[in-house]
Amino acid sequence: MEVLDNNIYPIFDRMMGREDKEALLKQHSLMIWFTGLSGSGKSTVAIALERELHRRGLLCRILDGDNIRSGINNNLGFTETDRVENIRRIAEVSKLFIDTGIITIAAFISPSNDLRKMAAEIIGRENFLEVFVNTPLEVCEQRDVKGLYAKARRGEIKNFTGISAPFEAPSHPDLTLDTSKLTLEESVNLLLEKILPKVSR
C-alpha cells in the first residue's frame, strides 16, 4: 500500500481567525451600537451610514429590531427578562460578525447602561463604539411613524420605553447625535470621522 507523503497535506491545526478575515476584506471590523428612543432616528442613520461605508468598499451588516425580532428573537416579548435576553443574543450574533471581519451596525433601544455594558463585554469593549441618538421624546412622538407612542399613551402597549418604561441615557457614549438638530448628512459625517480611522487598513 502506498504511503502518502505527509508534506502533501497541510496541517489544519486551527480555524482561520479574525485577522485572516480582516486581511481578506482589507478592513478592520467594529461594532457600532446605536441606542436611543423609538423614533429617534437610529435606523435611518444606520442605513445611511451603511451606504456610505459600502460606497468606500467596506463590508457591513445592519442588525435592527425588524430583522432580529422577526427572526432569531421572535419568541421574546418586552418584559425585563426578555429585554436582557434580546440584547444578549444580539451581542452574541454581533460578536460572530466582528470575528468574521465585518463592520457591524446595531440599532436597538437598549434602554439601560447595564444592557449596553453587557453587550460591550460580550463583543469586546475595544471593538464597541456606542452612539447615543439623543433626539427629544417630543420629537420622537411627533414622528411616530408606526403609531407606537399613540398606542402606548392609550395603554395598548405595555413597557414602552419613554412612556411606561424608563430609558437610561448612556454615561459615556463615544458619540451623541440629535437628529432634530443635525441633518442626516451631518450625522453620517460625524460618524465617519469616528469610524474610518478605526476600520481602515
Structure write-up:
There is one protein chain. The chain has 201 residues and is of the alpha/beta class. It is built from 8 helices and 5 strands. The chain has a 5-stranded parallel beta sheet, with helices on both faces. Helix 2 crosses helix 8 and helix 4 (80-99) packs parallel to helix 5 (113-123). The N and C termini lie far apart (50 Å). The mean pLDDT is 90.
Strand pairing plus helix content: what structural class?
Answer: alpha/beta
* Low-pLDDT windows of residues: none
Q: What is the element string, with H for helices and E for strands?
A: HEHEHHEHEHHEH
Query: Based on DSSP secondary structure assignment, what is the total number of beta strands?
Result: 5
Helices and strands in order, then pairings?
Elements: H1 18-25, E1 31-35, H2 42-55, E2 60-64, H3 65-69, H4 80-99, E3 103-107, H5 113-123, E4 128-133, H6 137-143, H7 148-153, E5 175-177, H8 184-199
Parallel strand pairs: 1-3, 1-4, 2-3, 4-5
EC number: 2.7.1.25
Pfam family, one: APS_kinase
GO biological process, one term: sulfate assimilation
